[in-house]
Amino acid sequence: MATRSLWRSAAKLTLYGTALGGGAAAAAISTSDNPATALKVCTTVPLRLVRDSFTAAAIAFDYEYSLLGLAEGSAERAEVKRECHRRGAERLRELCFRNGGIYIKLGQHIGQLEYLVPEEYVQTMRASMLNRCPVSSYEQVCEVFKKELGGMPDEIFAEFEPVPLASASLAQVHAARTRGGEKVAVKVQHSHIADTADVDCATVELIVNTLHWVFPSFDYRWLVDEMRESVPKELDFIVEAKNSVKCLENFRRLSPQLAECIYAPSVFWNLSTSKLLTMEFMDGAEISDVKKIQRLGIQPSEVAKLVSQAFSEMIFKHGFVHCDPHAANLLVRPMPSGRRNFFGKKKPQLVLLDHGLYKELDYSTRINYAALWRGLVFADVRAIKENSVKLGAGEDLYVLFAGILTMRPWKKVIDPAADHLVIQGNDNERSELQMYASQYFPEISELLRRLPRVILLLLKTNDCLRAVNNSLMQGSSLQTYFITARASSEAIIAAKMRKWSFLSSLSIWLEEILLEIRLLSMEVAMWLLHLRKALSG
């Protein structure tokens, strides 16, 4: 019944979309400064809607038909459902590649939502979305240059490499040299992507809403809401450039102890527009390339520590967070000053790339989130519940929220052991987490619907950082949680100091002493764990 309804909905969507697309096309072509471009864009939209509708219907029909008659909770149903997930993920992947643009961005976002969507979707998207991004031809690049800077690339720059260094969902990067001799990286937006972005978001929203209507447990409307808010900002490269400046200024002003260790490429403002961004060219090792980092004379553990410090400061103290820290957006190089650590290894500098996706945390959200993480690290059940509720999880789903944040079952979250949040990363642990994700899928959907969108982006950021830490340390480390505990606690203490009085200052002083004792105990535990690991190895 639901399947028949979905096929009818798909047909209606296709018919209505084509009719609306035709009307919109006529209006757009008649008013456009570039009728040829408008015609190309408007004829593409109905075709994409047809693809969207039938892909969604095919995925839903597969689930409905394949699971028909199989007992809920049976091993056979679980196995068949996994196969449905795999086929659905492959269909969605092909849709993203065929439509391109915003759809690639959507696929990348899904690939970073580990344990929030079925594993098969995450693995399929993660394996392909970063490696098969569209590439604009040199003629299309020239078209953007002429429109944005009034000349061809070889007229603007002394040298310009026609073959891109890298390509992403929204843009690609070319090496170039300015007339003044500086080597630069030029980020060029894929042509016409801005013209179709609004319509692409609308068609995705239409499909997601229809799927939710037919299958109420399928509720990913929050993902569409997030795309609608973030995509326009990511398509404006001036916003990206300003974000990079603000990020470094925050470190200089609020975290001076780290300011020298964090860097973002300088922007050439006279050679940048909303669709074309010229930046200082950066050499360094991609953060997941452990062997290259070691060849540079840098310890991977030092890099992992710096990443944890940088993002803890951004989240808990700055309230202005880079929300796309996957491996391709983080480079490592030796400190330009040549500083070395106690063992003679070069100190690392973290270079942040792609500043298009940032989130600002308002004061109360930042402090509540800091208090929640402090509660998680110190296994404080009262603080976990209280601050989860303040952030919107509710009294019924705070346990699930804690599990999603830490990727640990509740019994581990509240375990007083110092390393209770450390993820071992073995097959048994992965299987347990995947079982929970499958078992509590409706509750996870409800939780994601409740939480503020800024928290949803922080969940994605956590997943990216967890992946980075795993590549550097071959698993999570106690050091990460030690850094989180200190930064979150310092943010809470700073918030309390705003309401100064003699009694409050005495209370804060005692709290700081208690914090140092707890952190010292964590450091001792961390040292003992390292020693035990070294002796057993």
From TrEMBL:
<dbReference type="GO" id="GO:0005743">
    <property type="term" value="C:mitochondrial inner membrane"/>
</dbReference>
<dbReference type="InterPro" id="IPR011009">
    <property type="entry name" value="Kinase-like_dom_sf"/>
</dbReference>
<keyword id="KW-0732">Signal</keyword>
<dbReference type="InterPro" id="IPR004147">
    <property type="entry name" value="ABC1_dom"/>
</dbReference>
<feature type="signal peptide">
    <location>
        <begin position="1"/>
        <end position="21"/>
    </location>
</feature>
<dbReference type="InterPro" id="IPR051130">
    <property type="entry name" value="Mito_struct-func_regulator"/>
</dbReference>
<feature type="domain" description="ABC1 atypical kinase-like">
    <location>
        <begin position="129"/>
        <end position="387"/>
    </location>
</feature>
<dbReference type="InterPro" id="IPR045307">
    <property type="entry name" value="ADCK1_dom"/>
</dbReference>
<protein>
    <recommendedName>
        <fullName>ABC1 atypical kinase-like domain-containing protein</fullName>
    </recommendedName>
</protein>
<dbReference type="GO" id="GO:0007005">
    <property type="term" value="P:mitochondrion organization"/>
</dbReference>
<dbReference type="Pfam" id="PF03109">
    <property type="entry name" value="ABC1"/>
</dbReference>
<dbReference type="GO" id="GO:0055088">
    <property type="term" value="P:lipid homeostasis"/>
</dbReference>
<comment type="similarity">
    <text>Belongs to the protein kinase superfamily. ADCK protein kinase family.</text>
</comment>
